Amino acid sequence: MADAIVIGAGLGGLSAAIHLAADGHRIEVLEAAPEAGGKAGTFEIDGVRLDTGPSVLTLPTVLDEVFARAGRRSGDLIDYVVFDPAFRYRFPDGAEVTLHHRVDDTIDAVRDTLGARAGDELASFLDYAAAIWEAAAPSFVYGDAPRWTTLLFGGLETLRAVSKIDPLTTMQRAIDARVHDEHLRAILLRYATYNGSDARRAPATPNCIAHVEIGLGGYGVRGGIHRLVDALVDTATGLGVRFAFDTPVERILTAQGAVRGVASARGEHRADLVVANADAAHVFTSLLPRPRRATEDRSMSGWTALLSTKKRERVAHTVFFPRDYVQEFADVFDAGRPPEEPTVYVCAPRLSAELDPWKDREALFVMVNAPTADHAFDEDEVRAKAMARLEAEGAIEGAEILWSRTPQGLADRFPGTLGALYGAASNGPSAAFSRPPNRDKTLRGLYYASGSAHPGGGMPLALLSGRAAARAAQEDLLCSASA
Ligand SMILES: Cc1cc2nc3c(=O)[nH]c(=O)nc-3n(C[C@H](O)[C@H](O)[C@H](O)COP(=O)(O)OP(=O)(O)OC[C@H]3O[C@@H](n4cnc5c(N)ncnc54)[C@H](O)[C@@H]3O)c2cc1C
User: Domain total for the chain?
Assistant: First the structure.
């Protein structure tokens, strides 16, 4: 019998397992897939593993701290890659904007390409975004799940913090009020997609993502993001964590209001603590003995592909914007269809991960935003539009698709998600309060550690979710031991 079972070996599950094992608990991780990583997965070609999920790591100190909890240094396990130029944004009118690793270089580049006013507006927008981050991060990201009661009875200080996080206007309105250049507006609006939300409806609070990526910087991992997953598995194993792959959990076992373990096809696994890294919606609707309703408001999904193409001069990340970027949110969230004229995102692992195994060719990761899998999706059409844009831009030549995944493919691989990339969307001021907290409200011993629980999606937040779930479990254990 393990002290705790973790359902899923995604980033949140690995982080929870490491924190709990570092606290001295015996941990067993049961993973449905044959390998760890979850959305941070891979596809292998010619013996080379290519990432099929995340490509930009922000807030690397969060990862460093997970390794440090196990007494290890991230520098001994992985190498961060600083890509500079970092992002290139291309627009149909021929405009091109380059973002760099250092914020001052980015502001200079925006001044050079979009003019002095745009440069000044970006600088002041980033100050505004940094102020949101500083007010929001301690409680909404690093702290326990926010509650309405804290807000109502938190006093003047809480009210001051809330006014700084700008929750009563939308991302789009806040951007439009501060930025005049259409190109810069599109670049900033796109941060809504970093948690899969609709920039027209999301509160302005996620505007802080611009500060996190442009101000604090994005990183790659040499060899690919999956190296980070390997390092987490190695760290967990070093602490005695046991992994069972190809082991989907079918049910959470309960008795007298508390968890007693889980059941998989291999039998019953007894434990007094269960940490769910699987999507909270999957737990609610399929694993609990008494199913509950899951949120309807999902973050967006996407069509993703890996291509092989002739090597080209490029930067680590390129975004090809459409003529009307706001229309993309209307297509995905209002009409429930893939964008008529999609934004195409391209990541070049040759630069982002310094992975360059082929002589004349290189692999590219491509992504197009899409609605969740409960809407119609014509893969041929989306693929044709994405490839035509990349060819027209000279970004690919003689390209061949090695692998692709539709929203339905994501939904099948990650049960309960409907293919949503980041759990629930942040499409209203109350989103942070409706996200599942890390401790189940009714069942003793059940915790949530994933991008679908507090504090939300994206790699650093999923890792923090694991830490918060482990912290809640440890607090409860100490409480019951002293009772
Ligand atoms: C295409 C794509 C691009 C992305 N880009 C970025 C990016 O650039 N930067 C960034 O920070 N984030 C990005 N993300 C988001 C990031 O990958 C996720 O937020 C994060 O990896 C989610 O981790 P998680 O802890 O929620 O676990 P998940 O990755 O959701 O893994 C959950 C695990 O639980 C397992 N599981 C589910 N049900 C069961 C069951 N019943 N029994 C056993 N196991 C089960 C699954 O198999 C899976 O391994 C991207 C995601 C995708 C898909």
Answer: 3
